[in-house]
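[job 4471] stage=fold_predict status=RUNNING
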Amino acid sequence: MIQMRHEYLESIDSTNNEIKRRAVAGETEGLVISAGKQTAGRGRSGHQWETPADISIATSLLLRPTVAIDHLSSLTLVAAVAVRRAIEELYGIETWIKWPNDVIIHGKKVCGILTEMSASEGKAEYVVVGIGVNVHQTSFSEELADKAISVDMALKEQDPFGAKRGDCKELTYRIWQEFALLYEAFCMTEDLSIIMEEYNRFLINRNAKVRVLDPNGEWEGIARGIDESGKLLVETKEDLRQVDSGEVSVRGVYGYV
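[job 4471] inference complete, writing structure tokens
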């Protein structure tokens, strides 16, 4: 199993950027960089991921996989399963996944995942798995209020009079423990066959109508789950289509999920 080494920084531009700098300098697999604050955090599709000081998790892992390069995009789904497991096991909060890698509580996003890769001659030189989790936020901007939630907000909804709060350090370690187990299985199969059933069980938009935001034209269908490669299977009146996360986004017809 991958042996992880944890480093914590008070502030950094981006934990993903720091891992990339370390990777280029020759750092070996298993380094985890976490930070109390990110000044230039990013999410999927180039969106900014806010990491105010000491209220959320910003953490990234360096991998040097020997898995075929075409299969590595599945790691973002592996990471989503690890985060979902960690939150539910530590805090007893019902937690779901919105394809491909958003972790959802009460219909709102609690976690963002960004996986990046450097490749040469058809092989991965390194992969960075970056994870951001909202933990201590008590509110969000008007723009995000109906889309985002934190662990503490979910705990408050679960028990309005309780004093339980999330713990960034505890949750970070549990996420990477879960990821290490899943990553070992993924490296053996080079697909998602071992975790596909679990992923689909917690896929929040499974068997629901979704809108596929394809640059070539939006279309709708019923999400039926993922296949072993991590593609979303969407059933239309005509056929069952495979949707690749690298090309399109998927939304609920009547809202975010």
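[job 4471] summary: The mean pLDDT is 92.
[job 4471] exit 0
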